Amino acid sequence: MNSKFKALFESFTLPCGVELKNRIVMAPMTNFSSNEDGTVSDSEVKYYARRSGGVGMVVTACTYVTANGKGFNGEFGADSDELVPSLRQLAIGIKEQGAKSVLQIFHGGRQVPPQLVPNGDVVSASAIPSEGAGKPVPRELPEEEIEAIIKAFGETTRRAIEAGYDGVEIHGANGYLIQQFFSPHSNRRDDRWGGSIEKRLTFPLAIVDEVKRIVAENTNEPFIVGYRFSPEEPETPGITMADTLVLIDALADKNLDYLHVSLNDFWSKPKRGVDDSRARIEIIQERVGSKVPVIGVGSLYSADDVLRAKETGIPLIAMGRELIIEPDWVQKVAEGKEDEIATKIDKGKQQELMVPDPLWQAIIHTPGWFPGIE
Ligand SMILES: Cc1cc2nc3c(=O)[nH]c(=O)nc-3n(C[C@H](O)[C@H](O)[C@H](O)COP(=O)(O)O)c2cc1C
């Protein structure tokens, strides 16, 4: 190995005690390839196994905690005990190759396509649709359904423990239900779940507390609990960088194992809310300090890209698209073959890359999404 990359290969112990063998994480990526009944498909398990030999930790695609949270065609489910064997198949597929396995737990809220959820009943914090033409007007969740969804995040965590995962990641990012409660765009409530910024934090923090409670009750082994968030929203009103600093102060007091900052560009700068010209991730890292480890992500492809990101002081670096393009990324850097890393999709290599057909079709038919597809 070229010695400058050694820093990427140091092991890292998360606060719960789980040790990651290196600093590289596979970012959560939906693959549209699960079975109709919510079970994982064989091609999906093979796709993960192919990418689990080098990285320290794999975060799975998001999985719905209740039937009305299903956000994607071919998304696998975790909303009933019958799905534990399916969840186990995926955990084993990842762990057998040497990576820690983390299940991303999710509810799509107002972003779910109505045809994917029972009776087309789309729910959210308030009856405010997402911006854009033709978006459904969600039904405002009543108190007892909010409580039930919080419990469902806990139940899914219990299933993750039973299925053998090393942890869960609470999906509080990308505009889905947890973020919808934090956002002043989608949360216009004036009860205990909304109003002030502190009240908009009630739902995300209640989920963290419930997940942590279930972990404490159901296992004596170290179990990872991470939280993913998006630092800003483009809408007005919408989450600003200043709001996010309030969110991370609250999360940093919750004994989480990591905060995962969802960004498409690792180096992106704040749009509003702070007077600071540094990258968002640097501002977040400074604010969090040593209270909880941070994972950074976004358009990192080459070994030098990842090294530069790591040099900001962020302890863990995730990659999404690049690990689809190059499943052997970590092994190549470890062997001093970083010049042989592919950084563009090769349209002729679907079989070799073991990418399930629905994901492959989405990649090659979406111009500009992946390098190599114009
Ligand atoms: C195919 C695909 C599916 C994704 N699905 C999810 C998901 O299920 N959950 C999530 O939090 N982010 C999801 N993302 C976002 C990625 O985790 C990541 O933040 C983003 O792709 C930027 O990282 P990258 O440039 O390394 O790909 C997805 C991204 C891609 C490309």
Would you write up a description of this structure?
It is a single chain. With 374 residues, the chain is of the alpha/beta class. 32% of the residues lie in helices and 13% in strands. The chain has 13 helices and twelve strands. The strands form three sheets. It has an eight-stranded parallel β-barrel with strand order 3-4-5-8-9-10-11-12, surrounded by six helices. The two termini are 33 Å apart. The model has no long low-confidence stretch (mean pLDDT 98). It binds flavin mononucleotide. Flavin mononucleotide binds next to strand 4 and helix 10.
Low-confidence stretches: none
N to C succession of SSEs:
EEEHEHEEEHEHHHEHEHEHEHHHH
Rg calc: 20 Å
Helicity, as a percent range: 25-40%
Amino- and carboxy-terminal Cα gap: 33 Å
Specify the biggest β-sheet.
8 strands, parallel, barrel
Question: Approximately what portion of the residues adopt beta-strand conformation?
Answer: 5-15%
Query: Which ligands appear in the coordinates?
Result: flavin mononucleotide
Give the helix/strand class: alpha/beta
Strand order of the largest sheet: 3-4-5-8-9-10-11-12
- Count of distinct strands: 12
The residue-averaged pLDDT reads 98
Output the number of helix runs: 13
What coarse outline follows from CA principal-axis ratios?
A: globular
Q: Which key features would you list for this structure?
A:
374 residues; alpha/beta; eight-stranded parallel barrel; two-stranded antiparallel ribbon; 13 helices; 12 strands; 32% helix; 13% strand; binds flavin mononucleotide
